[in-house]
Amino acid sequence: MARTRNRRRRRGQLGALPLTSMIDVVFLLLVFFLVTANFAQKESKLPAALQTEGGGVRSSDLQPQIIQISVVNGQSIYTIGQVQCSDRASLESVLQQLPRDAGVAIKADPDVPVQSIATALQAARNAGFSRRSYVPSDSGE
Predict the structure, then answer these.
(1) Model confidence pLDDT, tens digit, residues 40-68
(2) Backbone angles phi, psi at 137, to 5 degrees
(3) Residue 138: helix, strand or coil by DSSP?
(4) CA 42, CA 49: separation in Å to the nearest integer?
(5) What residue ranges define each of the domains in the chain, with the CATH number in brackets?
(6) Using CA atoms, how far apart are residues 22 and 105, in angstroms rounded to an integer?
(7) Among 7-11, 65-69, 90-94, 136-140, the least confident range
(8) DSSP labels for 12-64?
């Protein structure tokens, strides 16, 4: 009969959990998650317009220089805005006069040889452009 009493006491004691330490653990977890949470706005919700001391960023500052390459009478012609060049030296001299921050984009017609594209890339590199890219033209242009 003594054994049955001991078993009943053990069962009763096993069922009881110390809630004080569990509350402490839950409180510490809550504090941890509050401290490590990031309440900053997502970048997609931030305003897109950046303000500077000069009153804003001009759109011309953000656009890269565009070199359009076409073939006329079997010779490659490099066009930057209204200026046309037919060789690498003249292209480099024109590129050295332009701002380099936005970079340069080279756009070529479909019938332009690869050597002409490589020449334009090298001229941009020699002129000091650190950001250079090649953009193939659509056949409809």
Answers:
(1) 766 666 555 555 555 555 545 557 788 88
(2) -80, 150
(3) coil
(4) 16
(5) 2-36 (no CATH), 64-136 (3.30.420.270)
(6) 63
(7) 7-11
(8) HHHH---HHHHHHHHHHHHHHHHHH---SPPGGGS-SPPP-TTSS--HHHHSP
